[in-house]
Amino acid sequence: MRSSLRFVSVAAVAAMLAAVPGSAQKTTGPKERYEMDVATMSGFAAMAGGGRGGLGGAMSMMFGGDPSSRVAYTLNLRLGSDQSPSAPPPKGDHYFEPQAKLGKSVPLIAPPRAEGSYTPEFERPKGRLLLYWGCGAKAGPGQPVIIDFAKVAAGQVPPGLFSSAVPIIREVSQANSKSYVDWPNSKGGKQPQAGSSLIGAHRINSNVGSDINFNLAQDYMPGLQASTAQQADGSVMIRWGALQPATGYVAWTIGGMDRGGGNGDMVWWTSSASKEFGGGLWDWLPPSVVANLITKKIVMPPSQTSCQIPAEVKKASGEMMIGNLNAFGPEANFSYPPKPAGNAVWNIDWTAKVRFRSHTMLLVGADMGGMGAMGGSSGSASTPAEPPKKKKCKGPLGIPLPDGAC
Fold first, then answer.
1. DSSP string, 123-163
2. Where is this chain compositionally biased, Low complexity type (predicted)?
3. Whole-angstrom distance, CA of residue 398 vs CA of residue 406
4. Is the peptide bond before 67 cis (omega within 30 degrees of 0)?
């Protein structure tokens, strides 16, 4: 089963606009597109996603782990080109300043292209999925929406289950590039070390186009500091410290996952005021898209610093809920050559985009001596993370969960 999530290419939109009669300026290209996704993970997310042993590492931190390692950084680098490599296979390097603590460069290589078809292993789901949404002491009208996994497995998918309002935006992918390389990969994947900084000059050299050079003024976002607290009315309050670079926030939790040998209810809640699950809500989104989602009350505004999980969600979830708080951040965009004056054709050689976000894990437990209220820290970053594992976290209906969620 596939969701109806939309993939948006800003480069494609720009090309269409350039072809519209009467446009002020025609453009061609870009021949190369570079995308750099920058994330800060804090609290349990830093432990679970930062190479410290998954949820076991998070629990270790909870009961006396090293508090200085509660922030971790991750980078994901993608280069796509419409040109063939000068000498196959396609390859490249991203050169950093010393303060990045990533060595002289990290290698960009081409992942293997999937050949043929295969049938993935699939375990028929059991039980039910209960969907809740919105901040407040009590669940709103029409909640929960109940999905019987047995009916879904039989092809009876409820209409409007997946988000169509929140795009997943990937401008650079293997599918839309003649030549494609990325990092982390099999030749190198250790994530940034403690004290890493991205500010300064960046150079991407490859055999699929000209060098890409830009200077970055924005650094990693601070770590989110958040806490959860059970209220007298049975609801759970999430509170967090505002991040100055944040453009908006979204939260979700999943509970009821350990009942009756997998035959019970799974409970999924999102802070969106409408029934919006998935899509780019767990990812990087441009500030303009986030601003639009705030007007629709799908994303919480940057001024908001609390959200109440309804009592019905906590009651249905049982003793433990696990979730995520995501802070969308700024973007930096670069292109070459500079845009010419007037109506001269702009022949774009390359573009580069750097996207930022910060997220933290939410753990809501019944008996953890207060430690179930997840706390983040904006202190130093963790020690180097191991290369991300290929096996992804999976949520309801097989939906991938964000880094650090399991």
1. PPP-SEEEEEESSSSS--TT--EEEEHHHHHTT-PPTT-S-
2. 395-406
3. 13
4. no
CA 32 from chain centre, in angstroms, equals: 23
pTM here is: 0.80
DSSP letter at 193 equals P
Exposure letters 115-147 (e unless 16+ CB within 10 A, then b): eeeeeeeeeebebbbbbbbbbebebeeebbbeb
* Structural contact between residues 240 and 226, judged by C-beta atoms closer than 8 angstroms: yes
Shortest CA distance to 216 belongs to which of 333, 350, 378, 337?
Answer: 333
What the block records as the tokens of 359 is: 């997220």
Pairing relation of β-strands 7-8 and 168-169?
parallel
Question: Could you tell me which of 170, 108, 158 has the C-alpha nearest to residue 131?
Answer: 158
Residue type, 247: T
Query: CA 267, CA 288: separation in Å to the nearest integer?
Result: 31
